[in-house]
Structures are given as C-alpha cells and as structure tokens.
Specification:
This protein is about 40% helix and about 20% strand. The chain contains 6 helices and 7 strands, in the order βαββαβαββαβαα.
Length: about 180
C-alpha cells in the first residue's frame, strides 16, 4: 500500500553555509510532489512547507509565512541554530511544526513540540532513509557544532564509525541536557 503523498512547497534561499535541499530531494524521491514556493500566497495550497533560510532570517520568514498558513498544514524548518519553537507564529495558526537539520547523509537532528511533530519528523526521516536524534531548542547550537566535527571523519571510515559516532552523540546530548537542567 502506498502511503499518502503530500504537496510540498519549499521556501529555499541559497547559497549560505550549510544550505542544502536534501530533505526536499528525499521527499521528492519518495514520491511526494515537491515544488519551489513562488510566492507566499501559494503557501496555502501546499500540505507541507519546508523552510531553508539562514538562521538569522528564520524569524522574519516565519512571521511573513504566518499570514499564509492554514490549520493542519505542516511547516518544517532546516536550521541548525533553532528548534521547533522558532515556528511558534505558524503553530499558533494551527500548523503542525518541526525542525529537521541534516547532520550527515544518514542522520537528522530533529525537534518538535507535540506528538504530531514527532510523527512528521520520523516519517520524513524514514522516507529519506535516515535516522533521527532529538536535539531541543537552546542545545542545538552547542551540540550540533560538536556533531559537525564528527562529520570531518574521512569518508572511507564513516561506515565503520557511524554507530560509534551516534553513540557518542547520544552521550554528548545527554550530558548537555543534564548540564543545562542542573
């Protein structure tokens, strides 16, 4: 049985360091209808909107987008710097929100505010043949900077080291969360 297919609109403003449209490409390969958002007025016709802009521009884009979303839409941003709370303005309009930042080809750092957001990131990651690890709000910057260092491992060793790198990442996140809470 074929899972439901979404009409996905991308709000993508490259080039900037870390910009990629791998989530859009993965969803397209999985059979979703992916197109570039021509204007914000077109946002209402999409089932899902992917926002990929520099972290410092995200708040402004989300504020503009809030006037064009409808209840039940999915809005996902791909910023390494911000968690799902950066999408509060569209969530207040009834959108389901999540953050998905690509760490490497097989791992996405995700954040969500509710079970619907969690289901969305898990489904999208599965369709992109990737795993997820939750990294929330203010922890994203410090933790993901460490993770990006792990990505400097030579390509021919990545397959051998990835399970260990993922284990270390989980330990690092647990440590960061304990330090943040304590």
């Amino acid at each position: 049985m074929t899972p439901p297919r979404l009409r996905v609109a991308t709000y993508f403003r490259p080039p900037f360091p870390g910009a990629n449209d791998d989530l859009a490409l993965g969803l397209d390969a999985a059979g979703h209808e992916v197109r570039k958002l021509g204007s914000l007025d077109e946002a209402a016709s999409a089932d899902c909107i992917l926002v990929t802009v520099p972290g410092q521009e995200l708040a402004g884009v989300v504020e503009k987008l809030a006037g064009h979303v409808r209840p039940g839409q999915i809005v996902v941003h791909t910023s390494l710097d911000h968690g799902a709370e950066a999408l509060d303005a569209v969530e207040l309009k009834g959108a389901h929100v999540a953050a998905m930042a690509q760490v490497n080809s097989a791992l996405w750092a995700v954040d969500f505010l509710d079970p619907a957001g969690e289901a969305i990131v898990n489904a999208f990651a599965m369709e992109c043949h990737a795993s997820t690890i939750r990294v929330q709000g203010s922890l994203r910057g410090p933790v993901l900077n460490e993770v990006l260092l792990l990505n400097q491992i030579p390509e021919h060793l990545v397959g051998e080291l990835e399970p260990e790198a993922l284990r270390q990442l989980r330990l690092l996140i647990a440590f960061q969360e304990d330090a943040f809470e304590g």
